[in-house]
Specification:
α1 crosses α2. The chain has one domain: Winged helix-like DNA-binding domain superfamily/Winged helix DNA-binding domain (Arc Repressor Mutant, subunit A, Orthogonal Bundle), CATH 1.10.10. By secondary structure, it is of the alpha+beta class.
Length: 113
Amino acid sequence: MAKGSPTVSEPTYFILASLLDGPLHGHGIIKQTLELSENRVRLPVGTLYGALDRLAAAGLIAVDREEVVDGRPRRYFQLTDQGRALVSAEALRMQQAASVVTKRILRPGSAFS
């Protein structure tokens, strides 16, 4: 996610979208991102945690809780209000951008109708 950029990267978008239903731990975010993106966004663990650190530093997500499972720490992340607003705005922006093309494709007389 570039500073000052009006859009977010596809991986960032799906990470944020994966948290819309509530807190998830890293592996849950990886699985949800893969499912939501229809297998387009595959996040290696190192990439995910780098992204989560950046998103937390930007105030878009926060640690919800931590627990220990099989002797290993597990952190759950949740969207902040700012993160929810950003992913919602990005979804609306993409929807509006897509409608420019779909309206033109579906109009009478277009090469695609």
